[in-house]
Design goal:
This protein is of the alpha+beta class. The chain has one domain. The chain contains 3 helices and 7 strands, in the order βββαββααββ. It has helices spanning 22-25, 46-52, 62-71; strands at 2-4, 11-13, 20-21, 27-32, 38-42, 81-82, 105-106. It has a 3-stranded antiparallel beta sheet with strand order 5-4-6. It has a two-stranded antiparallel ribbon with strand order 1-2. It has a two-stranded antiparallel ribbon with strand order 3-7. β4 (27-32) and β5 form a beta hairpin. The protein is globular and about 40 Å long. The chain starts with a strand and ends in a 26-residue tail after the last strand. The protein binds zinc ion. Zinc ion (ZN) binds next to loops.
Length: 132
C-alpha cells in the first residue's frame, strides 16, 4: 500500500495490503523517534507481561507505558521507541499516521523489529536492554 504524505505529497510505500489492526492480532506496536521503524510484539509475550501484567499494549496507563519505554533498548537506527511517536514520511518526516495512543492501526516499515514474527514466545525480551 502507498501512504501519500499530506505535507509533501510524496508516496510512502509499505509491503502490506492495508494498515494492520493491532487489536485483531493482539499486538503492541511502537515507532522510533525518527518515525521510520516499527517495533511489533504480542500482547501475550511473557517478557512483556513481566513488565506490566496482562494488559493490551494500547490500553496501558501512562505509568505502564513509561515502564515499557524505560526497559526497551534503543532502536537499531538510534533514538528511542515511544508510545508518543508517530509514523513519518520518508521524504519530509511529516507525520503520516498516528501513535498507538491514538490509533489501533499501524504501518510496518522495512527493517522493523518483529520479535513475535520469529515465532518464539518471549522474544520481546530481545528488544529489552535487560534481555538477551
Ligand atoms: Zn512528506
Amino acid at each position: 500500500m502507498n501512504v501519500i504524505c499530506p505535507a509533501c505529497g510524496d508516496s510512502n510505500e509499505f509491503a502490506q495490503p492495508h494498515p494492520y489492526h493491532a487489536g485483531f492480532a493482539n499486538q503492541g506496536f511502537l515507532y522510533n523517534d525518527a518515525g521510520t521503524l516499527t517495533l511489533v510484539w504480542s500482547s501475550f509475550d511473557p517478557a512483556y507481561e513481566e513488565l506490566v501484567g496482562q494488559f493490551h499494549p494500547w490500553a496501558l496507563t501512562p505509568a505502564q507505558r513509561a515502564v515499557i519505554e524505560a526497559a526497551l533498548s534503543s532502536a537499531p537506527s538510534g533514538g528511542n521507541w515511544s508510545f508518543a511517536n508517530v509514523p513519518r514520511c520518508n521524504s519530509c518526516h511529516a507525520p503520516i499516521g498516528e501513535s498507538i495512543t491514538s490509533s489501533i492501526y499501524y504501518l510496518l516499515y522495512p527493517d522493523s523489529l518483529q520479535p513475535e514474527a520469529a515465532g518464539e514466545p518471549g522474544r520481546f525480551r530481545s528488544a529489552l536492554h535487560t534481555g538477551a
